[in-house]
Structure formats: C-alpha cells, structure tokens
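Standup, Tuesday
Yesterday: got the pipeline producing structure tokens again.
Today: sanity-check two examples.
Blockers: none.

Example 1:
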Amino acid sequence: MEKATKRKVNNKKGKEEKPIVECDDESDAWWWLVHKGITASFLSIALFSLLVRVAVSLHPYSGAGNPPKYGDFEAQRHWMEITLNLPLKEWYRNSTVNDLRYWGLDYPPLTAYQSYVHGLFLRFFSPDSVALFTSRGHESYLGKLLMRWTVLSSDVLVFFPAVFYFVVVYYAGRNPSHRMSGIAWHMAIILLNPCLILIDHGHFQYNCISLGLTVGAIAFLLSDKDLVACVLYSLALNHKQMSAYFAPAFFSHLLGKCLRRQYPLLQVLKLGLVVLGTFLIVWWPYVHSMEAFLGVLSRLAPFERGIFEDYVANFWCTTSVLVKWKRLFPTQTLKLLSFGATISSCLPSMIQQIWSPSKQGFLYGLLNSAFSFYLFSFQGK
C-alpha cells in the first residue's frame, strides 16, 4: 500500500540526521488519507462514495417505460402517493382507491412513514408526481431527480454516520500503528459496497436506512450501550423485515451478557421493555384492533410467492434443479422446513454467545446468522 524509502543524511560535521521518508507518487494520496486523521479520511472517502452513487444514478433503471408496473421507481413513488393521499389506517388495506395488487405496501410501518416524509418533499416541488390516481406511471425527469435526492439524502443522514461510528468503535484500543490504515480501508470497503449502491441508487431503494440503523445498533452494542442498540435495531426491523437476518446474533449476545450480570432477570426485562416500547410506538396506529394489526402483518410475509422467487442463489433455488420443492410439498410444510433449516444453522453461534458472549464472537454471529437466513429462509424481502 505505502511504498516508502528511508535515507540518512549526514551534515558537514559528520553527525547523522533523522531519516527522511520518501513516498512514491502512487501512494501519496493514500498516505495523506492515513496520516491526516479519521475525520479527514472519512470525509474524503465519503465524498468519493457520493460521486460514485451519483454516477450510478445517471444510468437507466429496470422497468422504465414498461407498463403496467414500470419497475422499482413506480413502486416507491406509488407508496408516496398512497401515504400522502389516504388516511393512515388505509395504507395497508385493499380498497377501490388502494389496489394492493398494484405495488401495495409490503414493508413494516417505518417504511410507510419514510414514504410519507419523502412524499412531502416530492409534492412540494412536483405535485403531479404524487397525485392520487393520475400519477400512475409518472416518469418525469424532475420526479426521478427528486426521488434520487431522497435516496442520496437517506444515505448521507443515516448510513454514512453509522458507518463512521462503527469503524471508530471497532478500532478503538487497537494497535495505533495500524489503526488509521485499517480505518481508512474499512470505511472505503463499506461505503463503496457495490451491491448497496447498485440497488439503492440504481433502482430507487432505501436499504441504506435499515442497514444504517443496523450498523448503528452494532456500533452501540460494541461500545456497551445496549439500550440504544436495542432501539436502533428495533427501528431497523420496523423499516425492513430483512433486518431479521441479524436477530439471532443480537438476541443471543444480549441474553448472554444479561445472564452474566448481577440481576439477570432485571436486565432482560429492561431490554425487553425497550424493544416492546419501540415496536409499540411504531405500530401504534395499527394496534387499536386485531384486524388492523393482522392486516399489516399479513402484508409482511408473502408466503404466496413460494419458498423462493425468481432465481436466487439460496439453498432452495439451487437444489430445485434436483428436488422440485414447490411441487412436492405444500406451503405449510415448506415453511416448517425453512424455519428448521434456518434456526439449525444459526444455533451453534447462538449457543456459543449465550454461553460465552464476546464482541468478536458477536460479529462472527452476525455473519453466520445473515448467511443462514440468506440460504434457508422462506422468500426473504
């Protein structure tokens, strides 16, 4: 990475002076990033990451000009249209003004609230882009530009700060001689993740919000601020259900920590109340009746799509070449098979963290849990 040569210079009196470090031109920029401090490194990498995101957003997206559903842009725009123009209790309910077969809301309430806030932004500058009924299939240049800005601002306000805090916490107390270089590389790897950039900025998604909340929760947990971590992770779960991929790791690590404290039951109760309180606040408009609550819940688990949708590189899709899962078993059986396989593959790391919780073990548990859900869970979102 850094190619430097040292040479010693002698003065006229024959005394040896301090060595002079000479850096090759190729490593000058990286040397500056590493030695100018965390903030300078982060700002430089973040600026470059933003430029990459903007460059990706200049290219076409799937579904553009392709009726009747027009692709991901129309899905996000339609959610803004619905949340802006219909009463909150109607957002997840099928009706003459909200046909759930046409890009109906199928994420938790926090995503709906986010769509409402972003919809206010679009309506201020371009009312036609979120007008009820008449905006269907709307693909104006201004509408797409405004939508791009909502994604970019979400990244900057949620994901970027979370990554910064996580990397700083992760490297705290490590060998100072390697810390700055590691931080710079680590921030670059996370902020320039091609999958996140292509999905969010290429196809108008907001995974940066749920991932930012999750990364923030991980950082606070590593810094022993468990209550804040519970709030942030609960918000991540309420933004996108895919955040449940990390739930076994969070649950087992926090339970293991609680069991080693003086009053374990009290600690578990405290964390449980924080989680329940966060969920209650987010779901408050839908807990007034069981019908409303189950109506939203049913939208979050699209079992009718089958154990896998399209072609994904998980276990069920790969093995379907030999075993026709959808033909051999009913949906109920496939749900049980999926649940059993997912939990079984998560279990070793969960037991290890309950028995002997550690920060490094928690990070490995996150990796194991995410892979388990990706490979074996039933049609993830």
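Example 2:
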Amino acid sequence: MPSKLEDELFPSTPGKFKIERAHTMNRQFHRCFSSTSTMFVWALLLIALTASYLSLQSFLDTGSRYFSASWGGIQWEKQVRNSAQTHRNGGMSVLVTGAAGFVGTHVSLALKKRGDGVVGLDNFNDYYDQSLKKARKSLLNEHGIFIVEGDINDAKLLDKLFDVVVFTHVMHLAAQAGVRYAMENPQSYVHSNIAGLVTLLEACKSANPQPSIVWASSSSVYGLNDKVPFSESDRTDRPASLYAATKKAGEEITHTYNHIYGLSITGLRFFTVYGPWGRPDMAYFSFTRNILQGKPITVYRGKNRVDLARDFTYIDDIVKGCLGSLDTSGKSTGSGGKKRGPAPFRIFNLGNTSPVTVPTLVSILERHLQKKAKRNFVDMPGNGDVPFTHANTSLARKAFGYKPTTDLQTGLKKFVKWYLSYYGYNHVIHEGQFRHLKSGSVAVLD
C-alpha cells in the first residue's frame, strides 16, 4: 500500500491528469505572457527607435536647410544690422528691393553716402547679363551696403528682415522690366510686379512699426493717352502693354493697402531712365554697343513715319526724386496690421520734361563715340511701345523741390565715358546675355 508520502508525491491518475493539465495551461499562459511582454518591449523599442530616427532626420533636414540657405544665421543677421545702421542724426533705415538693379544701385549709394542705413534685396534674375548685376553688387559692398540674395515673393525672408531690423522706409524698385518681353513671358510680370508687390505690402502692413513705402511705377501707365505733357491726373486706364498694366495694377493695389492698413505710400512714374550702370536692354545702351562694333541699329518710327520721342531722364535726377520722396513720405498710421488713421498716398511723375526723338539720341551718341551709326528705319510693331512720352513734374517740384538738371547731351556723355571704362571699345554680346531676345531686337525704349 503506497505511503502517504507517495500519495502526496505521486497522486492518483485522475489527480495526476488534472495537475498536468493545470501545469500545461499554466506553462502556456506563462509562455503567452512572456511572448506578449517580449512583443510589447520590442514594440516600445521600435517606437523609440522610430522617434529617434525621425528626430534625427528632422534635425539633419533643418541643419541642411540652414546651411544651404542663402540667408539666415548669426553672421548674416550681423551683416544685415551693420548695413542698416544709420550714421546721421534723424537718419533712415531703408530696405531697397531690386538693389542690384540700375536705379536700385544708384539710390542705395546715395542713401549710404548721406548717412542712411541701407539693406539691399535682389534675386539676380537672368533677364539680362547677371555679371553686370554682380558688378553692381560688388560696388555696393565696397560702400558697406549688404545685399541679401532673395525674392520679394519669399514671405519668410521678408518677415525675417523686418524682425532683424526696424526699417523706417522701404524703397521698392524690384520689378520685371521691359515692355516687349511681356509678350514672351507674361507670367514673370505677374509674379514680380503684382504678386511680389502684394507679398511686400503684406510684410510692411504687419510690421510694427510700419515703414513708409516709396515704389517705382512707370510712365508706361499713361498708355494710349495723347494729351501732353502727361500729368498725374490724366487717364491711366488704357495701357498699351502688359508691363504697363501690371504697373497700373500696382497703383491700385497700393491704394488699397493705404486705405485699409494705413501704409504711407508714394508711387513714382519714371520716364525712360538712362545713365552709367544702366540696363543693357535699353535702346541707348545697345545703340552704343552696335555703333562701336560697326553693326546696324534698328530705329523705329511711328505712324506716318513720325519719329518716336522719349522724355529721357538722367539717373542722377531720378535719384534726387527718389530721395526727395523718401524724405517727405510721412509716417504710416497702422500698427500690427490695423489702421489708426489716414496716411499719405501720393503719385509723382519723375521725368526730364524735355522729350527728344530717337534719331536725335543716335546723333548725340555718334558725336560722343566719334563714329557713324548704320541706321535701319523700321515701322514700330504692335509690341506695346508708345510713340512718345512727356512728363509734367509740377507736383513733384511742389512737394519736394524736384528739378531735373541734366540734359541728354550731358547725360549721354557721362554714360559713354562709363561704358568705355567698363566694357572697352569692343564689347561683344555673348550668348546668354539676352536669353530672351535676338540681337536684332534687343533695344527697348522703356
């Protein structure tokens, strides 16, 4: 008879079965629990690794964007602040858009020379030879003016600039220029002259304090107007080109931002600006190059063989008008995008007030270059050019003493002297300098 101990150690078959079944279920339970725990731990580990990877990737991406960006960083901010620092009592701190452009370069230099702070912004597009823009940039750098390379459509860049510097004024000169190119690439005009303007105005109206704005409109807004001289009160609702239409749209848009947000805004209608460091696509510029190279120039004529005429305005006179407009612009009245009262809204003509025909322009260049031009007279195509421009500048004279002093003879002499010193006598146009135009149709008047 089995002992009690044996009975305890070795239970009867039924009891043994129950115990083994219970042990089996227990082992399965522990195995299952152990497996679930392991999976849970591995899941947590996987989640942790994934989170770490994503964090690392985000850090690397941020760092990559930081190091690859053309703006931002401690050193960049230091350069911006130093450039914006004023050096005269009551000096302005001015953001100049299109600073590497023709007018932008001259205005920036004039502001810096009198002790104002200047920060430039330019996207260095390839509408014409970029090397000329880079040379202007070098000139500005030599005078302590920092140029930020970026687009006015970059809202984050604009916000950053206004965060780094409290600009008192904005001189908005960035735009897609040229009348005829609009027939080939209309989107570039909408992108720069309308969308870019709105992006800039959004940044200005949200700034606290708001800056005063002076911007470049154009004499082209007078379009098919045949009343002379052109006055600011004349009709401007019949543009002859898309370029003119975008500038007219800009005048309406700026009026809206003035009315709603209290931005002080002055629009300047430039009349055919010329001079040293000018735009290579302009007629006087390409005429000079072709005359020196012995190549023919194309001189357009209007209906009934009437010579085209322009109110050619020397760059120094334009600069005086720009600075006068900044000095008398008045203050914006908004704060944080909310208007507190009416702010100045002005539009001025800046011209020479003495139109000159294109054949006369060519004759003056011939005298300065001491070389005859080979002229081809062609009827003006329907490309947006207008037959004449003539500025009435009485409003600008009354507002800030604007008075042009440089006639075309004197201005072209200065231009030719610069041209020969910069390019020499045998400047050859290279492929890519005018990617959008053929050599026979380079010259534009506005």
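Quick observation on example 2: The two ends are 125 Å apart (CA to CA). The chain has 13 helices and 15 strands.
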